[in-house]
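Let us begin with a simple case.
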Amino acid sequence: MKRLSRFNRFVFILNIVSAVLLVLACTVPYIPAATFPYLSPLGLTVPLMVIIHLLFVVYWAIGRKRQVLLSVSLLVLGYFLMGPFIKLGFAEDTIEDEDLSIMSYNVRSFNKWREIDRPDVYERTFDFIVQEDPDIVCIQEVDYLKREDFQKYPFRHLKYIHMNDRVLIGIFSKYPIVNEGTLDWPDSYNNGAFVDILYKKDTIRVYNLHLQSLKVKPKTDSLINKPFENVYKRLAKAFKKQTDQANFFLKHSKAVDYKKIVCGDFNNNQFSNSYRLVKGDLQDTFEEKGYGFGRTYNFLGIPLRIDFILADQAFEVRAHKNYDIRFSDHYPVMASFRLKEE
């Protein structure tokens, strides 16, 4: 610090503060939200803090200052502890017809509340799904009245729940569904569902999860006009519910020995306790075959990955694809698989 100018000392203090915050954020996936609820929201800031530390690296490198080692060390350590924020690559693998393909998409009730200023959102969304032609489609926030339109998928699970404002989720399949059900999380408008599907003389279980919503939106009064403390408390409460729902899912999924694929909108990124619990030993298709940021949601201009497709080790992940279409506040993802030889 003695050889630094006054301005550079101030920059280094900011560097140290951001380093402490990043270290705390790195602990979030390993600490249950109920234990330290006010620590959990830090996980959402990891993408932003990674960008900030990259800027610190550039700043100190240009000045040829040894202070660059702080941010470099943190970024390297974070990469090995928490996985990549961005995957390097040049192109996505092609999704082949002979592979099992699954799409996960939060369609926001097909623009029921006119949040996107265009009248043809449902038609464009439906045409997109038909064109991409996945074998299984897991949809969050689906409109129950549209279920009959999916004639290409003769096997469907979409249960109407008689509860005010209960968010519905559906699973549509080209393969026979032999068992189905909902998880019915308590004290939540969100929910989870599952189906058991016959595929190549085997039975696989597909989960569609919609974890607790944060109920905080950018550019709305919930974020701008509310005190920061109230917003932070709301986030902490939502993260605790997400952890409870993740544990609920784990208990439910352990009841059968079927090969499993888990899709859904987790309403949190890969640096969260709930994601770590659900993922367990499953493969994250983006980490296996994706590239870039893997963005499925934008929050204040920050690309977040909050929609996931996970699969157990019985599957070979063949491809992962992120889409850049604006028919919802979320962006769809699709992945393909092959069953490994026994």
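The second case is a distinct protein. As before, the sequence precedes its structure tokens.
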Amino acid sequence: MGFSDIFKKDFLSAYTNASISALEVTGVLLITCVIACYIFWVYRLITRKTFYSRTFNISLAAIAVITAAIILAVQASIVISLGMVGALSIVRFRTAVKEPLDLVFLFWSIAVGICCGAHVTEIAVILSILLTILVLVLDRLPVGRAPMILVVNLKNGKLEEELVKKVETFCRYYKIKSRNIAAGKCNMIIEVRAAKEYDMVQEIDAMDGVESVSLVSHDGEVTF
């Protein structure tokens, strides 16, 4: 068989699956929609305490259905499959995914679409159940308490030692992140983990030479 034979009509017709009926396509897409709605619900449940993007969640459900339709089209004809390869190869997505967990749901949605389109729906169902259990269990695991950021402005840089001693009485862990001195005044940023945060702020504020004191939280990595 030569390369030119690939483009002959009889060769292409041998790879055309005419057994995929409209009823079967409708059934596959409906099953995919059900699982896609399930992914929509799980994503909404997991992100209830963080930033929730409704448009991204809707996109997850739509991607599953679109992927299933593409797989069905690829199975129907080799000509369509070659066209899909050419069309999808020129698509460029420049939207950055900021949350790593969003990537998990994105690949989950694509995997469900592929499995349903390939008529292995049981794999999509088992995958969805196991992945839901995995994500929920890992999300419930306790993590270390994130430290706070203590920002203190001193009228005199010589009061730094006194400030550190005061912090030591309330914190078993502290770390000086930055120290800025200008015109005799000192600005200090200290990472602390204190049990009595309110009392610590009040006593530091009552110290002579303290202009202002702030205690803020941050969403960075937790230091163990």
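The helical segments are 9-14, 22-46, 54-76, 78-89, 100-117, 121-140, 160-170, 197-205. The CA atoms of residues 42 and 48 lie 10 Å apart.
Keep these points in mind for the review questions at the end of the chapter.
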